[in-house]
Amino acid sequence: MADPRFFPSRGPYTLAELAKIADATIAEDADPERRIRGVASLETADWEAISFLDNRRYLDTLAASRAGACLIRPELADRAPKGMALLLHEKPYRAYARVAAAFHPEARPLAGVHPSAVVEPSSRLGVEVHVGPGAVIGARAEIGERCRIGPNAVIGEGVVLGADCAIGANASLSHAIVGARVAVYPGVRIGQDGFGFAMDPTGHLKVPQLGRVIIGDNVEIGANACIDRGTTDDTVIGPGCIIDNLVQIGHNVRLGRGCVIVAQVGISGSTRLDDFVVIGGQGGLAGHLDIGKGAQVAAQSGVHKDIPAGTAVGGTPAVPIVEWRRQVAVLARLARRRADPVKDE
Amino acid sequence: MADPRFFPSRGPYTLAELAKIADATIAEDADPERRIRGVASLETADWEAISFLDNRRYLDTLAASRAGACLIRPELADRAPKGMALLLHEKPYRAYARVAAAFHPEARPLAGVHPSAVVEPSSRLGVEVHVGPGAVIGARAEIGERCRIGPNAVIGEGVVLGADCAIGANASLSHAIVGARVAVYPGVRIGQDGFGFAMDPTGHLKVPQLGRVIIGDNVEIGANACIDRGTTDDTVIGPGCIIDNLVQIGHNVRLGRGCVIVAQVGISGSTRLDDFVVIGGQGGLAGHLDIGKGAQVAAQSGVHKDIPAGTAVGGTPAVPIVEWRRQVAVLARLARRRADPVKDE
Amino acid sequence: MADPRFFPSRGPYTLAELAKIADATIAEDADPERRIRGVASLETADWEAISFLDNRRYLDTLAASRAGACLIRPELADRAPKGMALLLHEKPYRAYARVAAAFHPEARPLAGVHPSAVVEPSSRLGVEVHVGPGAVIGARAEIGERCRIGPNAVIGEGVVLGADCAIGANASLSHAIVGARVAVYPGVRIGQDGFGFAMDPTGHLKVPQLGRVIIGDNVEIGANACIDRGTTDDTVIGPGCIIDNLVQIGHNVRLGRGCVIVAQVGISGSTRLDDFVVIGGQGGLAGHLDIGKGAQVAAQSGVHKDIPAGTAVGGTPAVPIVEWRRQVAVLARLARRRADPVKDE
Q: Which domain holds residue C72?
């Protein structure tokens, strides 16, 4: 179960209470009054812990697990060991998220400004804001209520944060207007100059970057990720987007609602993603593209063309995913044939 | 137009004044005394703003634009809407850079050392240097005149910065000799140990990294990029190089003049780039290579061999770009043929 | 030789002393009493410096070198210029590492807490710990003896560091238990939330990240690299691992002993690497994989399947390296044939 050194715990909860929290159904043979003390993985859980199964790959782990309780899809219930109390839910990972949050609500530092922080007098701080040691709040910045600014983070002049934002240690923001409940992880860089140069053998001339970064509500931005501000218009991150570590987002890029950008992806300048686009890890998008709603890009793919809505692509240059799989298969076959000249099809 | 919250504005300027600033020609039917109040994109510009067209992809946007004025190539002038005042220039983006800088000169913080900064007494600061809150200047460091050291940035012992450098928030430099007018963006890491280990199953033995990082004049280094110092010789970044966010430059790498290194590129140890090499986003170069003058590497390519001067390459492993395009085409054709066996060529 | 501005020097040493330090054999015609003042590369060394040859690519450089002495494999000894004093060793780079460390032992800042650092009273600092300017040590953290905490670094609540760790400038750690002699380079992010969301069109629900990061002894973690903490179990980095700059390690990943992870690699959540795995630069591993002992992944490869022990793979999707080379060869041949239709094989 979670190390109390880092995660103070609530509970215990009865199975009935957890079913209510998770909006799950208690399996027939489970005792609603059974007490559960915490969450754990299938491998490490003991009889007082609740776990979850979300990936069929781990069915064997389930069978060997000593977890007292488990969140599971109804159709897999018969794969659990006898005596494990089951909570049935169509989306066990989602249910687990609620249960885990009940045991371990997010820690919140005390409100107040640490004496070593530097807060410019012309800035405005909402109620119950926490400003950590060494943090810097620039002139005219506006920090929404209950925001938490981590140690040594830097909020630039004029930056606006909505309510309940969490800014990680050593992160920096400038030229940005940020919504509510945005999580900026440690080391994130937001609002610096984009890569804008009029290139020329006589010398690359820097183009003033006069746009902003606009971030919607409920966005998460992973550690050491970078989001450049716009050249003339803004760089925009739609509400509900989740952006993983070390992602690069160029100037004037626009993300719609709920996009999922996995680690180390790069999105070049002026490319636009509609809602709910998913880009796999290390994928790269050229500039000035339009990526349609719900499009999916496989990990490491290189996208050089617009993608229609709802389309999955893969490869470099990226093609529809079925085509890419065929390319992979045909190349593998040709290579095998070459290795073994007597064998033919 | 640029948000005055972040970008104080000069102007207005007359069309004649802007033509002079940009070294552009006023189109015949435009009024040289017309007043322009700022810059904006074609999409958002109003009749008091000047915009630019640099990419034919946006000709439709030009046609629908309400911009009062526009920088444009002469041969595209007839594609602009009636009434738009045109400034003609062969390189509109370059001309725009000058106009934008006239409206919005780079903001410069006031000279002086913030009381929360830590400046070792043995360091030397030139005139009009700005040292932001929480910044640290190590022993014997030399900071050139008019340098700006951002909040919580760390300048290591003995580091030398030429005049007019700008070091971003939370950046760190050590073991580095830096020229004039160098921009180091937030979170950049310069001068740390390279990845030097004598590898062995009995334990990887760390090799002391005894070189430096030498950076020429007018270099730009993007957010969270990393440049390791040399092992015995130096890592060298030539004058005028522009390096984008999250780039990795290994120990002993040497870049000539004016190289362009796009985001998330990785250059392995001891590889040398001659002048004006361009590496597309997420490209990777193996170690100990020689990349000739003006060579170009397509995005995401993996370079395992030397590249002759003036050659463009693509793919992994990278081959001349024409060859790579043929490989892409032939593989696509084979995959289609396999999908539809009755069709043949 | 190393710039005294950055690297104070010991020595000189006689060839006999260096042979002992490096566990090398003095070549017959070399004078054991010859004095050497420092280390340098073959290109820049003068007659008072010792260099090394580890890569046959540089045999011409050796022939032209003016180095006074050189560490070299016995079978290449006859390629050195006359008069160069040779120290013979089967692993010259390893021998060089010891010699270089003798001339330039790692600099250690003075013990003590800088007055601008913020150290929570409930934390515990071992003897001879150095805490640099602006560094922050959170509540209940435990810092082992002789640790060095760089300027503006942030050690989170409850974090444990073993003895002799070095934490770079602007790095941040949270939710982590770290062994002895671990080097965390500038800008590293350890212990932040993993990318854990129950994704859903109605909104991506954040899953509490309740694991830790456990790091073994003698680990090196490169600049701006990111290691997320586990979801329920821990993220584990085995002893002796070396991790290069800008690497991404997702939640619940487990690395065995002595793994080598080159720059910009991404390892997705819950993937496990056995001992001595090597991942080339920019390689990507999907989640939930098992990578066997001593497996090797070529640079830029994309791994979607488990890899058996001792296997080398390449390409995206990665296949055994021999197969990948064949794929590359067959595709190149097909593309050439297509380009020149009259030529056939």
A: 13-103
| B164-198 residue pLDDT tens | 999 999 999 999 999 999 999 999 999 999 999 99
CB spacing of C224 vs B187 below 8 angstroms = yes
Q: Strands across the sheet with C312-314, in order?
A: C112-113, C130-131, C148-149, C166-167, C183-184, C220-221, C242-243, C260-261, C278-279, C296-297, C312-314, C319-320
Which of helix, strand or coil describes residue B43? coil
Sheet strands side by side (includes C266-267)? C118-119, C136-137, C154-155, C172-173, C189-190, C226-227, C248-249, C266-267, C284-285, C302-303
Parallel/antiparallel/unpaired status of strands C205-206 and C197-198: antiparallel
Contacts of A225 (CB under 8 A, 6+ apart): A185, A188, A189, A243, A244, A245, A246, A247, A248, A249
Look at A336 and C323 and tell me if their CB atoms are within 8 Å: yes
Kindly state whether residue A54 falls inside one of the protein's structural domains.
Answer: yes
Do C52 and C93 touch, CB atoms closer than 8 A? yes
Quote the CA–CA distance of C265 and C251 in Å, as a whole number.
15
Please list the active-site residues of A: 251
Digit-coded pLDDT (tens) for C232-268: 899 999 999 999 999 999 999 999 999 999 999 999 9
Q: Look at residue A151 and tell me if it is in a domain.
A: no
Closest CB from C51, C223, C260 relative to B226: C223
Same domain, C194 and C58: no
| pLDDT tens for each residue of C265-282 | 999 999 999 999 999 999
Q: Both C86 and C176 in a single domain?
A: no
Chain C residues lying within 8 Å of B197, measured CB to CB: 220, 242, 260
Helix locations, chain A, DSSP H: 15-22, 59-64, 92-103, 321-339
Tell me the per-residue pLDDT of B266-292, one tens digit each, with 9 for 90 and over. 999 999 999 999 999 999 999 999 999
DSSP B307: B
CATH number of the CATH domain containing A84: 3.40.1390.10
Please tell me the predicted confidence (pLDDT) of residue C73: 97
Q: Which two tokens stand for residue B224?
A: 């969270």
ipTM exceeds 0.90: yes
Taking Cα atoms as reference points, which of A162, A156, A240, A166 lies closest to residue A190? A156
Binned at pLDDT 50, 70 and 90, residue C343 comes out as: very low
Domain assignment of residue A91, yes or no: yes
Six-digit token string for C98: 């010891």
Instruction: Read off φ and ψ for residue C17, nearest 5 degrees.
Output: -65, -40
Q: Which residues contact C31 (CB under 8 A, 6 or more apart)?
A: C15, C85
Residue C344: its pLDDT value, please? Answer: 41
Structural domain ending residue among the three candidates C46, C76, C103: C103
- C-alpha to C-alpha distance for C98 and C89, rounded to whole angstroms: 12
| Closest residue of chain B to C275, computed from CA coordinates | B201
Q: Measured between alpha carbons, how far is C24 from C19 in angstroms, rounded to an integer?
A: 5
Residues 6+ apart with CB under 8 A from C115: none
CB B271 within 8 A of CB B286: yes
pLDDT of residue C1: 86
Last residue of a domain, one of C85, C103, C121: C103
Q: Which of B6, B43, B299 sits opposite A286 (nearest CB)?
A: B299
Q: Search chain C and give the residue with CA nearest B300.
A: C300
CB-side neighbour CA atoms (13 Å) of A262 = 25
User: How far away is chain C from the Cα of B86, in angstroms, using its nearest Cα?
Assistant: 46
Among chain A residues, CA nearest to B222? A195
**Which DSSP letter does residue A197 get?**
E
- Write down which chains contact chain A via at least 3 CB pairs under 8 A: B, C
Q: Which of A152, A224, A300 lies nearest to residue C154, judging by beta carbons? A: A152
Among A105, A6, A95, A279, CA closest to C230: A6
Q: Is C316 on the interface with A (CB under 8 A)?
A: yes
Our count of domains for chain C comes to 2
